[in-house]
């Protein structure tokens, strides 16, 4: 009997366990999934909680209920991976041996890494929305906010769902307009990036949308500290941004056990081959989803597309054959823009987000880098797809590799 241990029952870990359970002989393989609790959160829904458009309770379901029969679920905190001995030690002393290990432990916000962020002002004038508790607390703060300076801020990259701060800004603008408060609120979007987004075409389009909504862009702003008494962000180059209400995305980091095990980089992400997701240090260790140091978005779509490629590669690898699939960094993300419209972006390691149609060339029905109601409906529909098809590991009719069909390549070359 061979053992596959998967650390993390989030999107990538759950998908991988369910797909491999169907492929690996139950008489030969035991699959064990470890996570610290039994709560699976639909994290894209956090965005809507501050605006009262999503019930927090509707975003949480049982982790083990989404794992296929024949997958063992262990609730426990990982203390350390002893890769040389192929063992995982849990807090409390329990040990799990493995033949192959998949690290899918994600990434999480760390407000304590920025001086002044997690002090007396935390959840009073400084809020986040990348956790369910944070999004729920922000909902109460927004309901009492009727004038002043609202600053939306990203501490550093990479972060999971890198378009989320833009989405929050657009939704906040629309929410304030609907309440007749927009003229009483000054909005600032502060980012460590040189523009609104990482890639030129998308950055220009999204930067124009900030301008249209009179949201000031403060680019290349890398925060050094926050002064909670004066309510001021201070950057390493000594620029200052005052705020009355700060909505920040704290530094994101991978799991602490990755660092304790000597498996991570400076942000606790596991260095992997970006095409096979296999650890650069250990042949029997893979990292999926946000836990890997992939040079693409930390997004649910990346978890989805990479797992689709990982499963056949893993089957080849354990059979002693060369892995023949290559992950191209494919990602696509909806960007809510307010008033029931959204954009969609689709890109990979080599191709930046471009205008066009998706998934069917010229027909869509979704539009790339264009605000449409259909894109908004697509984002809302994804929640049902997530629970009922994606997590159970059922087939979804989308190409794993990015296609250039339907994209306006001349925009990239201009």
UniProtKB/TrEMBL annotation:
GO molecular function, one term: oxidoreductase activity
FAD/NAD(P)-binding domain residues: 3-295
Alphabetical list of InterPro entries matching this protein: FAD/NAD-bd_sf (IPR036188), FAD/NAD-binding_dom (IPR023753), SQRD (IPR052541)
Protein name (database record): NAD(P)/FAD-dependent oxidoreductase
Source organism per UniProt: Nocardioides mesophilus
């Amino acid at each position: 009997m061979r053992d596959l241990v998967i650390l993390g029952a989030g999107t990538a870990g759950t998908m991988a366990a369910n797909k491999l359970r169907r492929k690996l002989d139950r008489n030969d393989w035991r699959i064990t999934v470890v996570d610290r609790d039994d709560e699976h959160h639909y994290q894209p829904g956090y965005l809507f909680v501050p605006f009262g458009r999503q019930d927090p309770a509707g975003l949480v379901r049982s982790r083990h209920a989404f794992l296929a029969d024949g997958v063992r679920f262990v609730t426990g905190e990982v203390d350390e991976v002893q890769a040389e001995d192929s063992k995982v030690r849990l807090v409390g002393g329990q040990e799990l041996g493995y033949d192959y290990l998949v690290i899918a432990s994600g990434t999480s916000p760390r407000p304590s890494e920025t001086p002044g962020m997690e002090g007396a002002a935390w959840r009073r004038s400084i809020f986040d929305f990348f956790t369910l508790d944070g999004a729920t607390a922000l909902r109460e703060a927004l309901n009492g906010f009727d004038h002043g300076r609202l600053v939306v801020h990203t501490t550093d990259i990479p972060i999971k769902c890198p378009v989320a701060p833009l989405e929050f800004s657009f939704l906040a603008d629309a929410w304030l307009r609907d309440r007749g408060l927009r003229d009483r609120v000054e909005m600032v979007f502060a980012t460590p990036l040189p523009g609104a987004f990482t890639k030129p075409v998308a950055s220009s389009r999204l930067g124009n949308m900030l301008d249209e909504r009179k949201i000031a862009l403060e680019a290349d702003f890398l925060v050094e500290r926050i002064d909670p008494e004066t309510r001021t962000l201070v950057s390493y180059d000594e620029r200052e941004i005052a705020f009355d209400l700060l909505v920040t995305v704290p530094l994101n980091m991978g799991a602490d056990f990755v660092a304790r095990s000597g498996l991570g980089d400076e942000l606790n992400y596991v260095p992997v081959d970006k095409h096979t997701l296999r650890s650069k240090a250990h042949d029997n260790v893979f990292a999926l989803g946000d836990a890997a140091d992939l040079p693409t978005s930390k997004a649910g779509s990346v978890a989805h597309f990479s797992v689709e490629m990982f499963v056949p590669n893993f089957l080849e690898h354990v059979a002693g054959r060369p892995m023949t699939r290559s992950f191209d960094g494919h990602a696509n993300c909806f960007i809510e823009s307010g008033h029931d419209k959204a954009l969609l972006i689709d890109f990979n390691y080599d191709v930046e987000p471009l205008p066009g149609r998706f998934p069917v060339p010229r027909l869509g029905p979704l539009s790339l880098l264009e605000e449409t109601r259909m894109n908004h409906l697509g984002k809302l529909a994804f929640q049902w797809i997530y629970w009922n098809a994606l997590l159970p590991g059922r087939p979804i009719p989308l190409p794993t590799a990015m296609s250039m069909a339907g994209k306006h390549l001349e925009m990239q070359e201009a």
